[in-house]
Amino acid sequence: MTTFIETESIEMAGKKDEQRVWEALKRAYAKDDGIGYWRYPVFSPSDGPRREPDLLLLTREGGLVIIEVKGLTIDQIASVQGPLWTYNHFYVAEGAPYQQAEDQLFSLLHYFDRDQRTRRKIKARAIVALPRITRAEWEEKGFADLPSSPPILFAEDLGPKTMRLRIEEAPAVQRGRMPLDDEAWDAALSVLGGAPVHKKKEIAPTATMTKSYLLHQLNAETSQFDQKQETIGKVIPPGPQRIRGIAGSGKTVMLCQKAAHMHLKHPEWDIAIVFSTQSLYDSIRAQVDHWLRFFSNDTVSLTPEVERRIRIFHAWGGKRQPGFYSTLARQHGVRPLTVNDIKKASHLPTRMSPSDSVAYCCQQLLHETGGHITPQFDAILIDEGQDLVVENKTFHYEGKQPIYWLAFQALRPAIANDPTSRRLIWGYDESQSLDALIVPTAKELFGPDYTKLVQGIYPGGARKSEVMYRCYRTPGPLLTAAHAIGMGLLRPDGMLRGITNKSDWERIGYEVVHGNFRSGEEITLHRPPAHSPNPVPSLWEDPILHFQTYTSTTEELRHVAQAIIHDVTKEGIEPEDILVIFLGAPRVTRKKQQQLGQLLNDHSIDFYVAAAKTVNETSTSYGDPTRFVFDGAVTFSQVTRAKGNEANMVYVVGLDEVAKKENSPKARNELFVALTRSRAWAHVSGTDTYPFYEEFQKVLQSGDTFTFSFKQPPPYSLDRDESE
Known about the structure:
Distance between the termini: 55 Å
Largest sheet: 6 strands, mixed
Number of helices: 26
Mean pLDDT: 90
CATH superfamily of the largest domain: P-loop containing nucleotide triphosphate hydrolases
Number of strands: 24
Radius of gyration: 28 Å
Oligomer: single chain
């Protein structure tokens, strides 16, 4: 079956002629193995405005077709002289429709030629569609006799059989070798998706395989976006959209691709990307730059000029970087609140979480402006959306989540006279929230008047709410262990929080083998390996997740240091590919960082504490909060700074800090986030003996299938965590 994707709604764009040809193409190729796009986001370079193809079709049997649609009547074509057509009473005086389609075709073939599996193998055609003109009218004007007359789909050619015949009769710009074999077809889909193009290699597990060898081979594999990612990354909705995705599903990549696509299609738009972890600045910039370059054939990049249109914001901001809140505050003549302002405010709690602090700032801005925010943006994309939601209603604004309402008000409506048609797109995974353990539904974010804001489908097929259930980053055994321990599925007293119905488990990629989630009923959950395609578990003979306890912190850190030294000197892992996450409060972790850092320095291995000024320093007072990795150094981090980042080898130190308060969903959530930072291996360690360790061992033994007696999770309040 061919997948057809409208990157924007044809109907809402008013492109009736393109819609007619698009619907005909869908009928003609519905049963083929292929993919089709209306306005695929590749922008051929030209002297005028950037233009993407009207219609693109790639099928395994027939190859690549670009169709340029012109809604002209025969009387509107004054002359055809070579490739140049002159028009009467049309929105432009002249054009070269076939040449335009051919240029776009060559732009795409350039991408395919980068990979030897598809180089010169894709049969390629360009064709012009004239749905308002008949063949007889064309011939009567004498255009059919011209040597430059291109292949054309006329009004009578839009039936399924005739359309296929006309397309197949069109001369090939590139002959290719069709049909494509499995390897070439997978590569072709990867090229269209924008995935890295490399030759896929067969890897056989061996007893002598090192971690660095395995990583090197995996880096040479082609990653291919699935249909869900293709749709999310390339479709621009005409209003709000919620993207729920499990850890490692590619939410950040898709949001960055969507922002780049928006800019290339609508360079006049003001776009904001907002996130909560300061150390993500560099990675998000890199992603946006990558997609701009890819879809523009390297003619557009994230230059300072482009950054005036694509604003990349931390939610709050800092001394060196303006944030989303601080920028809006200044634009409304309000002095932005700082961290020191929050600390000095006597009416606020002594200890404020980052999300509570941001919410309070946004709440105060809304109060000071009377809720009247001047629209500044055409699209706002929020990453890590779960970390910008607060449970404490003291920090809500009129029953709404402050930063979401602020963002919603800062948007220009996409459709005139429809104030709800604001392109606020937020990605989230409630399992990763470190502060609020609630699902950011439309009602929770915007109040009861907006309950149905992200229900249903927009014209053109864009879903108002999407779910991404495949995890590409984190290996299956790590993800399932993180879910089970984070929710407390195997906890003797019953789960603490999480999903309590079959449909939601299935939406995040699990099968409910047995049970209906009634209290006291036995439930069996299974996660199919296909939903966690990371291949490391199948290639590495030993377990990829280790758990070890020690009698003292000194012993724990000594063994962790020895393991890191082994990874660097024997396994060949680069120090910057190793991340050590310290569980617990800063006062607990700081001393551990100093001890472990000294042990590594004794063996000439540098360490870098995330946000520090330089290597081998544990203080972050005068450092760079946007920095997470330093070349040649092992990264040390707490969970809050590690969010959104990743590494091939992750060491989680201090499991006893979770074990001491195993009934705290927040503590368990920190462990969930820590485990899901890994792309390959994880080592978890703690000290002393706790009942929680037995639960952790049972989780490891359960693999990808969990059976437990269901008990309804208790009501949860963050106040309980703060008091412990």
